[in-house]
Amino acid sequence: MILSTLEEKNRRILPLQIAILPLIFLVTLLSFNLYANVFIYDADPLAGSSQFILILSGAFAALIGNRYNVSYKDVINSISNSIKSVTPALIILLWVGALAGTWMISGIIPSMVYYGLKILDPNIFLPACIVICSIISVATGSSWTTSATVGIALVGIGKALGIPAGMVGGAVIAGAYFGDKLSPLSDTTNLAAAVSKVDLFKHIRYLTHTTIPSISITLIVFIILGIYQTSNGPTDNSFLIESIENTFNISLVLFIVPIIVLIMIVKKTPPIIALTVGTLLGGLFSILFQPQIINELSDSSNSSIITSYKVVIDTITSNVSITTDSEILNELFSTGGMIGMLNTIFLVLGTMIFGGSMDAIGAIKSISKALLNWADNIFKLFASTVASCLALNLTASDQYLSIVVSGKMFEKAYQDKDLAPENLSRTLEDSATVTSALIPWNSCGAYHSSVLGVSVGEYFIYAIFNWISPFMTLLFAAFRIKIRTLATKN
Q1: Is 334 helix (H, G, I), strand (E, B) or coil?
Q2: pLDDT at 44
Q3: What percentage of residues in the chain have a pLDDT greater than 70?
Q4: DSSP readout, 210-271?
């Protein structure tokens, strides 16, 4: 303990201009990687060397830390703690891949697409995505669950309608995070309220002041986009509906499985357990309702317990494609299982290595301290909070860490400015929670892009609610709209 204290004292304070070097290094290499993938290799913007670049940037940060008496052991311990914090998320990612597979071959997702094509008018499809995802997210308190269930189906329906995947992905993300922010079941909503020492429902009520205008603007934009898409795209879905009918046994009974999963999550069942149950039920329903799919995937004319077991296990763990009469549906009805999630898990591990290194060398603390020193008036205080949340989402790559660190750091500053703590809790949600999905190497951005099959680069501009929220909270601060002081606090 004494040795550890002496090591802390011997560490030199990391200057701001040094603290930001690893971040500049990371952004520079990722920018070059983006250019190479898009214009040279014609690949996904985050494919290839992105994970390696994150690890390399973590090593660069560790080298800087070594110059400031931060030992290799300290960096490794920090990285270890960083990875440990996302272990549940990594397990969830594996189970989401498994669930998507069994829900595909069981006909659950095809049934969602089928009824969606029949019920949802193309004119209102995009705003309907926002409303549907908002309802599911409020009910479950989870943007992740929303993406992994109705989000996947809505992206599939959008593709069938000829709507760009980025648009649909943006609508799903917007609705999912709107519901996530306002749900009393949401972990981030509870965390922001707890860190700021605000009653949960007072926090939610105060949050509506900026959240409602943000989602209203988003809905208006998507209504316009929906009308434009309908006037320029295909509207006859009869061929797609017929192709699904010819391939799967469509039934409303199949919706029993997603309903059970949603009920379990609303009842606060741990997500890993709910996803496990959903995956196993999907496998059972595939055997009961889709024997022809089992036969097709097993290259056998007769189903048996062994062949059915093999198809279900293969679907859970690896790539499976179901052939239909439509090329659009063939692409949609393909799944990667657990193996399909490994690239995303690699990306999350890379981000945690970088974030852990940045935390170990004191770079995050140095950047945060500089922001706090700059905040000499109320608007700058709000702006500094937003900037801190964004910086932590970029460097630590975790929304929970962004909420906790920024909340603790700025708590006293808000008190000193005679501001009620709900100002802080609202600002944390308007910046840390929603922007996490806009950063490709953040755990949230990596998750949603992988689950939806839409890259962050594709949906970024259309996730209007997510990027407009920080501007909305700054607008309210600039014009002193709904800024409650301690004197007026109820």
Answers
A1: strand
A2: 53
A3: 88
A4: HHHHHHHHHHHHHHHHHHHHHHHS----HHHHHHHHHHS---GGGGHHHHHHHHHHHTT--H
CA distance 312 to 280: 9
Q: Are 214 and 469 in contact (CB under 8 A)?
A: yes
Q: Which two tokens stand for residue 93?
A: 């990612």
In the numeric block, the tokens 């669930």 are attached to: 99
What single-letter amino acid sits at 457? G
Q: What backbone phi and psi angles, to 5 degrees, belong to 300?
A: -130, 145
Helix (H) or strand (E) holding 19: helix 16-19
| Residue 449 · residue 456 · CB < 8 Å | yes
Residue (of 471, 489, 477, 490) closest to 415 by Cα position:
489
Q: Which residue range(s) make up the domain with 350?
A: 18-23+43-86+342-478
pLDDT band at 219 (very low <50, low <70, confident <90, very high): very high
C-beta atoms surrounding 395 within 10 Å: 29
Q: How far apart are the first and last CA of the chain?
A: 46
> Residue 69 CA to chain centroid, in angstroms?
36
Amino acid sitting at position 399? Q
Helix H segments across 290-377?
291-298, 305-317, 327-332, 342-360, 363-374
Contact 424, 196 (CB under 8 A): yes
Amino acid at 67: R
Residue 173 is assigned to a structural domain of this protein: no
Buried (b) or exposed (e) across 100-123, using 16+ Cβ within 10 A? bbbbbbbbbbbbbbbbbbeebebe
Q: Please tell me the total count of domains within the chain.
A: 1
Work out whether strand 334-335 and strand 320-321 pair parallel, antiparallel, or are unpaired. Answer: antiparallel
The DSSP 8-state label assigned to residue 66 in this structure reads H
Q: What is the pLDDT of residues 242-294, one digit of tens each?
A: 888 888 899 999 989 988 987 887 787 887 888 899 999 999 999 999 988 88
Residue 208: inside a domain = no
The least confident of 15-19, 173-177, 302-306, 316-320 is 302-306
Q: Does residue 317 fall inside a structural domain?
A: no
Please name which of 133, 58, 90, 27 lies closest in space to residue 440, comparing C-alpha atoms.
27
Closest CA to 466 of 237, 43, 137: 137
Q: Is residue 346 part of a domain?
A: yes
Q: Are 383 and 474 in contact (CB under 8 A)?
A: yes
